[in-house]
Give the backbone structure.
Amino acid sequence: MKKREKLQIIKKHYPNALTTIDFINKVIDYVEEKLDLEPAQIMLADSICSDDVNSIQYPARALEFLGPFKMGGLDGFPFTGLTGMQAFASHVPDEGAVFIYYGPHIGISKEGIVGEINRFGQNKNSSCCGAAKGALNKLFDNSIEPGNITEMDYQMNTIEQILYNQKDRILNHNIPLYEATEVVYEAIDQRIQKLVAATEYNCKYVILAGIILINSDSDVGSFNSTKRFEIINLKTGIKENLISHINATI
């Protein structure tokens, strides 16, 4: 299957999708050409789901950055919190930058089925994101107890509460899992903004990339639908919105 054929499947739901490889290439080109930095001067922190598919489909060029520091747990929520954010902020080169890549993920199989992918070596499709689908099923069953977050299943309970707070919006959508993913993105984005504001960075820039990470079958790969791409100049405090740069046609 050619790249344009793969993208055609994904773009039915995410019109601005790029392959994850093309996304990372654009980020690296930008920091080299516009910020005059090499990837080795940039500390990458990601807040994406701990699902193994995200490690398997992680672009090789992302390893040109320092890290990654792992912030995310189930469905990408930044469960390492302020301590995690402050930890990698202290690891960044003085004349470099922090690159925070964050968002939930969702599967779309080559047949176009939302919420499923065919994983390596398996004959049948499986859920993606399994945590989001599990929480959504509980939402349908009215089995989420408001405010219930336990020590035994803290991360899953947190995802459940995020969805519960937007129950009507999600269940009234024609593809509830799609809308649940949007809701989780908004929760992650809000939390990342708060964590960034509460952290001191000893470097030149903070780069924020908020995305929906779209996984597909093992022979198709992954894609990004970019929702935020900003550069914060830490010397001037100016925040520059560069979403149009990422979404521009390659």
In short: The mean pLDDT is 95.
